[in-house]
Specification:
Radius of gyration: 18 Å
CATH superfamily: P-loop containing nucleotide triphosphate hydrolases
Distance between the termini: 42 Å
Order of helices and strands: EHEHHEHHEHHEH
Oligomer: single chain
Helix content: 40-55%
Strand content: 5-15%
Shape: globular
Strand order of the largest sheet: 2-3-1-4-5
Number of helices: 8
Number of strands: 5
């Protein structure tokens, strides 16, 4: 049975998600979208992957000690998502908010599958979740993504580079192999889930213009205006 979007399920709110490789620029783009929507006076809520207070500390400790197997990695992220979905996303969408997600279930579909978890099993874990109303996929070249990451810090993170998979002893080569495989998963999903593909190699401003135009054309933003008493 085909999964439904929040709009198709009758929710008054709308959910917009961004996906992409590490360093693709998706987080920058959704932050800029958030600020624009807020300045327009709309009811907006932002959430990001792996941010639930319920499991964040456990995830951090597991990563630092390199204790997470592909299965535990998958389950702990699913727990994080389920907690935020029930406590934040669904209530706010019922309250008529625009909810912005920096990564959604597609991150798990891609990463966990590449790490060796059965695709059907991974999807089954998230079968309680509705689909976003809009999903932007920022497609950037691997070298550009790598450069962007290293512009902000001196080295790659262990799991970010896929070092747990023993793809290469060189973290940079491991990153290219790991992220390249994740890209293949995203591209395979792009038609199935109707991703709006954005050229992540373009300048930040050019990408943001495309994103805003698409959001404004596909969502009736006037419905999400704050009432006078709701203004900050």
């Amino acid at each position: 049975m085909r999964m439904k979007t929040f709009e198709e399920l009758g929710f008054p709110g709308r959910l917009i998600a961004v996906e992409g490789l590490d360093g693709s620029g998706k987080s920058t783009q959704i932050y800029l979208l958030k600020r624009w929507l807020e300045l327009e006076g709309l009811k907006v809520f932002f959430t990001e992957w792996n941010s639930s207070a319920l499991v964040k500390n456990a995830t951090s400790k597991g990563k630092k000690r390199e204790l997470l197997t592909p299965t535990t990695f998958s389950l702990i992220h699913a727990t994080d998502f389920a907690d935020r979905y029930e406590r934040q996303l669904v209530p706010l969408l019922r309250a008529g908010y625009l909810v912005l997600c920096d990564r959604y279930i597609f991150t798990a579909f891609a990463r966990d599958t590449v790490r060796g978890c059965p695709p059907e099993w991974v999807r089954g874990i998230y079968d309680f979740a509705a689909l976003p109303d809009l999903t932007f996929f920022f497609r950037a070249n691997l070298e550009i993504s790598l450069t962007r990451i290293l512009d902000g810090r001196p080295q790659l993170k262990y799991f970010e580079a896929g070092m747990d998979l023993r793809l290469s002893s060189d973290p940079y080569e491991s990153f290219r192999i790991f992220q390249g495989r994740i890209l293949e998963q995203y591209l395979a999903m792009s038609t199935e889930f109707k991703f709006l593909v954005i050229d992540g190699n373009q300048p930040i401003e050019a990408q943001q213009t495309v994103v805003r135009d698409l959001v404004a054309s596909k969502i009736d933003l006037a419905r999400f205006m704050r009432k006078p008493l709701e203004k900050k």
